[in-house]
Amino acid sequence: MAMTQAARPKKKRTFGEWAKSRDGQKVFVMIAFMVIPLVLLFTFTYLPFAEMFGFSFYDMKYVGTRKFVGLKNYMKVFQRDDCFGALKLSLYYMVGSVVQLALALYLATILSFKVKGGSVFKGFMFFPYLINGIAIGFIFKFFYTRGFVFDTVLQWCGFQLDNLPYWLKDQRINNISLVGTSVWRYFGQNMVLFIGAIMSVDSELYEAAMLDGANRFQQFKYIILPSIKTIITLNVILSITGSLSAFEPPYVITDGANGTGTYFVVMHEIAHTQQKVGLASAMAIVLLIIILAVTILQKLFFKYVFKNAEDEDKNAAVKREKKLAKIAARKAGR
Amino acid sequence: MKLRKVLALSLAAAMTLSLVACGGSSDNTESADTTTETADTTTEETTDTQEETTDTAEAETPEGVPSYSQIAVGTDYTDLTASIKWIHHKTDREEDGTIAAMIAEFNKVYPNITVETEGVTDYAEDALLRLSTGDWGDIMFIPAVDKADLSTYFYPIDTLANLDAEINFANIWEYDGLSYGVPYMANAQGVLYNKAVFEAAGITELPTTPTEFLADLQLIKDNTDAIPLYTNYAAGWTMGAWDAYIGIVSNGDDTYMNQKLVHTASPFEDPGDDTGIYNLYRILYDAVANGLIEEDYTTTDWEGCKGMLNNGEIGTMVLGSWAYAQMVEAGDHGEDVGYMPFPMTVGGTQYALAGGDYSYGININSSDENKTAAMVFIKWMTEESGWCYNEGGYTVDKDGQNPDLYAAFDGSTVLSDQPALDGEADFLNQMNSESELSFNAGGNAKVQRIVEAGATGSESFDDIMADWTAKWNAAQEELGIEVLY
Question: What kind of fold does domain B44-183+358-407 have according to CATH?
Fold first, then answer.
């Protein structure tokens, strides 16, 4: 648009002339290209989101009459103990995501140097990410069954079956078992992202550091870590957001039963089994707000930790995270 | 510029071609018209025969389609020519040829009625979609539609009063005195058990009360290696299956489930005589607390349990009679699988709940002769095909015979739930949703909670029941539903 305004004062043209000119065509092409993604984005993201926001003020089922109840649904979200109680489970997933990132970073650092069969390892570790989440659920359902895969492997290592816990039955450890599946699935993907970032580090820096007598750990600490700060920050934020909205492992493996019902699973149960669509929508909005708050807190935290790590446009990052949060919340509303 | 002209020409050519194509398709519709014309002539013939056989038909069914009770299977309409399509959910029976065999049998009596079938996987959802398009054929198993919408989609089979004289469970799809569906089979709610396990455990008489049942489960644990009661906790819906016993089975009242439950102040109170919802779920809690269930309930496997019951690795499972045939087929010891009424005795009688499965419905938009052919087919399927019997279903036809699996039901009273009172049809749905207990509506989590509490001791059974009562009463208050009982 700036182009046309700049072009206009030069010479007076009719609209027809302008439309045929290079400037005019440019604008038309720009609009034409923008319209399609914007229409798609509006129709499938913002419109449903707005609808869901509207639902959160109603007492409604999928069919039948709706009753406007104002903020009552939001009050219920805060009054019910199953809604916020479920958020406690997110702590398990957050701890899991820290383990996952540390593991990914460690392996990425090793594999970004010359390692025999490095590509094979990368392939094997990335592979779980390519499997459908539901399929992973079924794999682990059998994996954890008493006397099946996991127990057998542990017995080979010398454990007695009687000393082994019930991986999904024992309420003290079943959430850890579930988090394990999500770590197994995502650490390979994190690792590949880290390797990509580490590859972009100039190899002359390592040589220079080696000449200065720096060992591998010092190279990691002073060269690699500062160079890939941005990608680490991004991965941490994505993992924490993912922890708050964990859904597939508990839904498929345990159906949210036996104390494994995360916020999303509870929301799903309320929306689809109990048909309280308004309440579930309010839960989704509350989760969106929580995710936004957590993301902002993390941004502040990283700003404090790596003072000048952000070399990209800050606004762009914030916008992207907001979008991710919205996507997560929208998934929740479905 | 030349290129542009070529483009324009080719575009014009393409357009004319497509126009021609349109013309072609309109020709097709013309030929379709002629086929309907020939079909019309056959209608005239059939209506002639119809007038001869059933004069009374005219009074109640103005469209010239006979009602269910007016058809005498095997003698009426044997020369009717029609081609009907039936969509159903029994994909397994479509594949193994059972359905084709039944239709071949049907065609021996009605050689000119062609029946085309289509088995639909994921029936519950797909059928609703197909229904909304209107173009699905002539017969379908009625999916979950609101009763008020029945007349929009389906042609009434008969009046309720007439149909009730012919079949059991005529009221499933009843609206305004008309019945829109005939169930293809019916299920009774009892308990699956393994006869060999019972024998090995030293159980000579089937249990009739929760206390006896628990004692028998203990005997199985003590005397055999079998799992006394398999909960199928992980599958979820198998836990929700316990809800099927909360009405007739636990109190012998066929108006309880759809009429009284929503108006009851404390449905989960212990009546003190080993009956009621309280003692129904107490069986589960006590069985779990005493270690009478599978060791690791969180990794149970629905497909695997069928063979285990068949082989005598499982003593009992609480499921509807529909599961019986699957358990028998799952292994080499089909003869060991037994079915008994639920061990609960109300006032000296054991009650069993029976209810229809999916029901045949006829497309309201079908032509009259197709409706007639569909009606004939449905009645033949119900009375002559033996399908219900072969599936191990409780008989739909009033004169039909029950399969042997119901032998243990001889002494017990089999009832089906009465529909809700006028104006209260959605009360139970509302209460289910508001209280989040969802009886018979996917409320698996609440039953799973009993298992968890029994296993970990985190809650006592009375606490759970008190919590349910609190939720039930809060929902009654919220919805303004009067407490009458």
Answer: D-Maltodextrin-Binding Protein; domain 2 (3.40.190)
Closest Cβ opposite residue A255 in set B236, B426, B456: B236
Q: What is the ipTM of this complex?
A: 0.73
Nearest chain A residue to B234 by CA distance is: A254
Residue pair B87/B140 in contact (Cβ under 8 Å)? The answer is yes
Q: What pLDDT, on the 0 to 100 scale, is given for residue B461?
A: 93
Residue type, B469: T
Indicate yes or no: CB of B436 within 8 angstroms of CB of A270. yes
Q: Is the confidence at residue A4, as pLDDT, over 80?
A: no
What is residue A257's three-state secondary structure?
coil
Close Cβ partners of A195 (under 8 Å, ≥ 6 residues apart): A108, A111, A112, A122
Q: Mutual orientation of helices B461-479 and B276-289 as an angle, nearest 10°?
A: 140
Total CB pairs under 8 A between chain A and B: 59
Residues facing residue B167 across a β-bridge: B397
Return the pLDDT at B21.
43
Rounded Cα gap, residues A234 and A226, in angstroms: 14
Place of tokens 């069954």: A145
Any alpha helices (H) in chain A, and if so which ranges?
2-7, 15-20, 22-41, 47-55, 72-79, 81-111, 118-130, 133-143, 149-156, 174-199, 203-211, 216-219, 225-227, 229-244, 248-249, 263-268, 277-305, 314-333
The pLDDT mean for chain A works out to 86
Is domain B187-355+420-479 given the CATH code 3.40.50.300 in the classification?
Answer: no
A333: contact with B, CB 8 A cutoff: no
d(CA A319, CA A316): 5
What's the mean pLDDT in A310-323?
A: 65
* pLDDT tens digit sequence for B330-341: 889 988 999 999
Could you tell me if A269 lies within 8 Å of chain B, comparing CB atoms?
yes
For B88, phi then psi, to 5°, come to -145, 175
Report the SS3 class of residue B350.
strand
**Which stretches of chain B drop beneath a pLDDT of 70?**
1-63
Q: Quick check: pTM over 0.90?
A: no
**Which residues of chain B are in CATH 3.40.190.10 domains?**
44-183+358-407, 187-355+420-479
Contacts of B433 in chain A (CB under 8 A): 61, 274-276
Report pLDDT digits (tens) over B290-322: 999 998 888 888 888 899 999 999 999 999 888
| B89 CB neighbour count, 10 Å cutoff | 21
- Dihedral of CA A37/A40/A44/A50: which sign? positive
> What whole-number distance in Å separates Cα of residue B361 and Cα of residue B370?
13
pLDDT of A196-240, one tens digit each? 999 888 888 888 888 888 888 888 888 888 888 888 888 988 888
